């Protein structure tokens, strides 16, 4: 019974469901929420968002509405304006071992707050980074096919035993054998030609 319990406890982390790991899209949303923090005095504003990464705008608006703020998308001249730009959004993977990858999610964001007369009140840039470990078999479940910034190529596998040791050893032996035979056959032909 103890062995069965020990085996179950040992294998349990390997069967972690995909829902336990946030997707790359959710990571971008988390990074945007941590980066774009508004002052408490700003309760209503006009939002100008880029067309790229629409899921960031959705997550930011949901958080601001939950905080009780009023967000307007059409031009409201009597309200302050919040404008943000996405300068970079990318995911990268690095191999840790045969089954685990280190995932790095980077979001570079710049935003500015303008008063109703369009004077700049606040400008800020941030580049939050999220680094975690994911199972290699879960990589495709973490990416979203509609958004290329959530996808990243898998890094190449490190060279194995064959490429690292066997092939260079074969090349070394073949070169050494070629040089030995060249000089051995050459010296024998010189011996045969002398009277």
Write a structural description.
By secondary structure, the chain is α/β, with parallel strands linked by helices. The chain has helices at residues 2-11, 24-35, 54-66, 139-142, 161-193, and strands at residues 44-48, 70-72, 81-95, 100-114, 120-126, 129-135. It has 2 domains: 15-150, Double Stranded RNA Binding Domain; 159-195. Helices cover 37% and strands 27% of the residues. Helix 3 links the parallel strand 1 (44-48) and strand 2.
Concise synopsis of the structure shown:
The protein has 195 residues and is an alpha/beta fold.
Summarize the helices and strands and which ones pair or pack:
Layout: H1 2-11, H2 24-35, E1 44-48, H3 54-66, E2 70-72, E3 81-95, E4 100-114, E5 120-126, E6 129-135, H4 139-142, H5 161-193
Parallel strand pairs: 1-2, 1-3
Antiparallel strand pairs: 3-4, 4-5, 4-6
Structural class: alpha/beta
Q: How much is the radius of gyration in Å?
A: 30 Å
Q: How many β-strands, per DSSP?
A: 6
Major sheet characteristics: 6 strands, mixed
Shape: elongated
Termini separation: 89 Å
CATH fold label of the largest domain: Double Stranded RNA Binding Domain
Beta-strand percentage range: 25-35%
Q: What is the CATH top level name of the largest domain?
A: Alpha Beta
Run of helices and strands: HHEHEEEEEHH
- Annotation field: number of helices: 5
CATH architecture label of the largest domain: 2-Layer Sandwich
What number is the mean pLDDT? Answer: 83
Give the tally of structural domains. 2
Percent range of helical residues:
25-40%
Low-confidence stretches: 1-18
């Amino acid at each position: 019974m103890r062995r069965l319990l020990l085996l179950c406890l040992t294998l349990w982390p390997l069967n972690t469901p995909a829902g336990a790991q946030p997707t790359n899209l959710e990571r971008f949303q988390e990074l945007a929420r941590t980066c774009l923090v508004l002052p408490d005095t700003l309760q209503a504003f006009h939002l100008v968002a880029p067309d790229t990464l629409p899921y960031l705008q959705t997550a930011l608006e949901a958080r601001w509405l939950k905080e009780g703020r009023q967000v307007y998308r059409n031009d409201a001249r009597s309200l302050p304006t919040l404008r943000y730009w996405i300068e970079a959004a990318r995911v990268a993977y690095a191999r840790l071992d045969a089954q685990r990858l280190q995932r790095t999610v980077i979001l570079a964001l710049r935003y500015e707050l303008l008063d109703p007369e369009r004077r700049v009140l606040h400008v800020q840039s941030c580049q939050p980074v999220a680094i975690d470990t994911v199972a290699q078999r879960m990589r495709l479940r973490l990416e979203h096919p509609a958004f290329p910034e959530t996808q990243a190529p898998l890094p190449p596998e490190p060279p194995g035993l064959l490429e690292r040791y066997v092939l260079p050893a074969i090349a070394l032996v073949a070169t050494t054998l070629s040089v030995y035979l060249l000089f051995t056959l050459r010296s024998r032909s010189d011996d045969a030609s002398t009277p």
